Protein backbone atom coordinates (compact mmCIF):
# COMPACT_ATOMS: atom_id res chain seq x y z
CA UNK A 1 0.00 0.00 0.00
CA UNK A 2 1.25 3.49 -0.84
CA UNK A 3 1.67 6.26 1.69
CA UNK A 4 0.14 9.65 0.82
CA UNK A 5 2.32 11.40 -1.77
CA UNK A 6 4.24 8.22 -2.62
CA UNK A 7 4.38 6.99 -6.20
CA UNK A 8 2.91 3.60 -7.04
CA UNK A 9 5.46 0.79 -6.67
CA UNK A 10 5.17 -0.14 -10.36
CA UNK A 11 6.55 3.27 -11.37
CA UNK A 12 9.71 2.86 -9.29
CA UNK A 13 12.92 1.08 -10.16
CA UNK A 14 13.55 -1.98 -7.98
CA UNK A 15 15.09 -1.18 -4.58
CA UNK A 16 15.14 2.60 -5.17
CA UNK A 17 12.92 5.62 -4.79
CA UNK A 18 13.89 6.88 -8.26
CA UNK A 19 11.10 6.78 -10.85
CA UNK A 20 11.83 4.38 -13.71
CA UNK A 21 12.92 6.13 -16.89
CA UNK A 22 10.70 5.84 -19.92
CA UNK A 23 12.31 3.73 -22.62
CA UNK A 24 13.82 5.80 -25.42
CA UNK A 25 11.74 5.84 -28.61
CA UNK A 26 13.08 3.88 -31.56
CA UNK A 27 13.48 5.18 -35.11
CA UNK A 28 13.74 3.56 -38.52
CA UNK A 29 16.10 5.26 -40.94
CA UNK A 30 17.33 4.97 -44.52
CA UNK A 31 20.78 6.17 -45.54
CA UNK A 32 21.63 6.96 -49.16
CA UNK A 33 25.13 5.98 -50.25
CA UNK A 34 27.33 7.69 -52.85
CA UNK A 35 26.21 5.14 -55.47
CA UNK A 36 22.50 5.69 -54.69
CA UNK A 37 22.05 2.45 -52.73
CA UNK A 38 19.79 2.64 -49.67
CA UNK A 39 20.68 1.16 -46.29
CA UNK A 40 17.93 0.56 -43.69
CA UNK A 41 18.53 0.48 -39.94
CA UNK A 42 17.04 1.22 -36.52
CA UNK A 43 18.31 3.29 -33.61
CA UNK A 44 17.27 5.41 -30.65
CA UNK A 45 19.38 8.36 -31.88
CA UNK A 46 19.43 8.94 -35.64
CA UNK A 47 22.06 11.72 -35.69
CA UNK A 48 24.46 9.72 -33.48
CA UNK A 49 24.01 6.62 -35.61
CA UNK A 50 24.55 8.55 -38.86
CA UNK A 51 27.77 9.99 -37.39
CA UNK A 52 28.91 6.49 -36.46
CA UNK A 53 28.22 5.24 -39.99
CA UNK A 54 30.12 8.19 -41.49
CA UNK A 55 33.06 7.42 -39.20
CA UNK A 56 33.11 3.79 -40.39
CA UNK A 57 31.92 2.49 -37.00
CA UNK A 58 28.63 1.05 -38.13
CA UNK A 59 27.51 -1.51 -40.64
CA UNK A 60 30.30 -2.94 -42.80
CA UNK A 61 28.02 -2.48 -45.81
CA UNK A 62 28.41 1.32 -45.57
CA UNK A 63 32.20 1.42 -45.25
CA UNK A 64 33.76 2.95 -48.33
CA UNK A 65 30.39 4.11 -49.67
CA UNK A 66 30.69 7.70 -48.43
CA UNK A 67 29.39 10.32 -48.60
CA UNK A 68 26.33 9.11 -46.74
CA UNK A 69 23.15 11.14 -46.39
CA UNK A 70 20.04 10.59 -44.33
CA UNK A 71 17.21 9.94 -46.78
CA UNK A 72 14.44 9.06 -44.34
CA UNK A 73 13.76 8.66 -40.63
CA UNK A 74 10.60 8.04 -38.66
CA UNK A 75 9.83 7.48 -35.00
CA UNK A 76 8.24 4.04 -34.61
CA UNK A 77 7.97 3.52 -30.85
CA UNK A 78 9.25 0.31 -29.30
CA UNK A 79 12.29 -1.76 -30.26
CA UNK A 80 9.96 -4.54 -31.38
CA UNK A 81 8.00 -2.15 -33.62
CA UNK A 82 11.26 -0.84 -35.11
CA UNK A 83 12.52 -4.35 -35.87
CA UNK A 84 9.23 -5.26 -37.58
CA UNK A 85 9.25 -2.09 -39.68
CA UNK A 86 12.92 -2.60 -40.59
CA UNK A 87 12.15 -6.12 -41.81
CA UNK A 88 9.19 -4.81 -43.84
CA UNK A 89 11.21 -2.00 -45.45
CA UNK A 90 14.13 -4.29 -46.28
CA UNK A 91 11.72 -6.46 -48.27
CA UNK A 92 10.64 -3.50 -50.43
CA UNK A 93 12.08 -2.90 -53.88
CA UNK A 94 14.28 0.16 -54.38
CA UNK A 95 11.40 1.84 -56.25
CA UNK A 96 9.07 1.24 -53.29
CA UNK A 97 11.70 2.61 -50.87
CA UNK A 98 12.06 5.73 -53.05
CA UNK A 99 8.27 6.19 -52.92
CA UNK A 100 8.41 5.92 -49.12
CA UNK A 101 11.12 8.60 -49.04
CA UNK A 102 9.18 10.81 -51.45
CA UNK A 103 5.94 10.48 -49.49
CA UNK A 104 7.78 11.46 -46.31
CA UNK A 105 9.34 14.46 -48.08
CA UNK A 106 5.94 15.58 -49.35
CA UNK A 107 4.36 15.32 -45.89
CA UNK A 108 7.21 17.00 -43.98
CA UNK A 109 8.00 19.64 -46.58
CA UNK A 110 11.33 18.07 -47.54
CA UNK A 111 12.75 17.58 -44.05
CA UNK A 112 13.26 13.96 -42.92
From TrEMBL:
Domain of life according to the entry: Bacteria
InterPro entries noted in UniProt: GIY-YIG_endonuc, GIY-YIG_endonuc_sf, UPF0213_domain
Ranges where the GIY-YIG domain occurs: 24-99
Any Pfam family the entry gives: GIY-YIG
SUPFAM superfamilies: GIY-YIG endonuclease
PROSITE patterns: GIY_YIG
Signal peptide per UniProt: none
Gene3D superfamilies: GIY-YIG endonuclease (3.40.1440.10)
Similarity field: Belongs to the UPF0213 family.
Name of the featured protein: GIY-YIG nuclease family protein
Source organism per UniProt: Mariprofundus erugo
